[in-house]
């Protein structure tokens, strides 16, 4: 192996470890697994030691491989950082950024407007947006950034707090005219509820008013797995949206198409984070989008909660 091939070989080595198998790394690079294996073998010959234990289904690091991953990963990140630092003007940012987000955010105009404005500012940037309500493995799918709502579960990733997602209870004027407006959380049990699919499996919902608390089990008279569909059903008078993200319904609250119920009672809020892969170095274009989203999210939340 020539010395100028070393960097590419180490990058392949890193991706095999991060994805957990040679076949996944080959699929990502659109090459045959045998090609990846040859590059790894050549790398091991060059350094004079075995870096990986290979099996038919997975790979694991040897002691030497673990040491190499820890030390050389940092060196390669430094090279990437130095290379990106040569790009000094924001207008020259370029390359692909892969972003993952919940479907509900993609359905809302605001995220797409932020991304569009970012590309207007940086026309050489390409963005690939993956919308999913399922868990997205950033390492396996090579995602640069992800917007995550709720408690963090993947300790491998680096998290940047965006803020809190506040929730309310609301219904249409037509529904409330027909069924009355609850004056206490206990009365919610006598109303039709529209909730997100799977919410009943999460247990009771606790509302607070000062030191007072009230817990109830969601009834789920209508259960839907899509936030926009829930919103439309509530507008049509299907029932009370028991946990409605404030950002998603603020416009209809302002126009009177929806009415907030029991506003003095607080629902639990959900933390929102920007997640990125655990490399020491973050490409300048990814850091720029992270800062952009953080700034816009903060102003957006300030507007919706004002």
Automatic annotation (TrEMBL):
A single GO BP: DNA-templated transcription
InterPro entries recorded: LysR-type_TF_proteobact-type, LysR_HTH_N, LysR_subst-bd, WH-like_DNA-bd_sf, WH_DNA-bd_sf
Annotated ranges, domain HTH lysR-type: 5-62
Gene3D superfamilies: 3.40.190.290, Winged helix-like DNA-binding domain superfamily/Winged helix DNA-binding domain
Molecular-function GO terms, alphabetical: DNA-binding transcription factor activity; sequence-specific DNA binding
Keywords: DNA-binding, Transcription, Transcription regulation
Family: Belongs to the LysR transcriptional regulatory family.
Protein's name according to its UniProt entry: HTH-type transcriptional regulator DmlR
